[in-house]
Specification:
Elements lengths: L14 E14 L11 E14 L4 E12 L7 E13 L2 E7 L17 H4 L4 E8 L3 E11 L9 E15 L2 E15 L10 E8 L2 E5 L6 E3 L1
Amino acid sequence: IYRDRDSIIAKEENTLYFRFQNANFFKNNEYFGEVIPGYTLPGFDFTPLLIYHPTKNTKLEAGYQLKLLFGKDNDMDRASFLRFHWQIREWFAVILGTLYSHNSHNLPEPIMNPEFSFSTIRDEGLQFLINRKNWKADLWVSWDDFIWFGDAANEKVWGGLSGKLKFDIGTSRLEIPVYVTADHTGGQIDATDNPSTTELNVGSGLRFKKSLSGFVKQIEI
């Protein structure tokens, strides 16, 4: 869930249309154990959008995001939605504004909790998407808290890289995922004495797949 469509269809050039995105959720974590606190996330998220394709390789999306947890009617999260998507090459795109975020980053659960889709608004910043034959990558930076001169708060920026290398050898494929995220708190123009900090998360692994022609069609490790 919460994977935005990140492609551009050339035949939609010079078209304008309306899209309504909605997700209703109920996540119950009351397991009566020590693995996770027993809380529940009931609510909804909806985003009405106007989408315009000025050219065959660009897309503009404008709208509004609303997210509500039931029982907190006076605490609705809301934010404007404005995204510019430029498909520079078939395999390379630049996104400015509202990013393809949450589960669209394809980060593993130990690095990013999928429940963020229920509790947070989409990221905003700059993003690069790469999709080549042998490698795929999502590189982004999101400004969570913007500051100006003399603000009594720190700037907060979150970014990362989610990628995958692919090697095909006959009927076999080896994949090497790479994940890096950085959560930075700092800034040079604030009025605080707080130190700058950066928290890093790094992950990788191996995935092997082989296609077979017998009763077992594929093995995967």
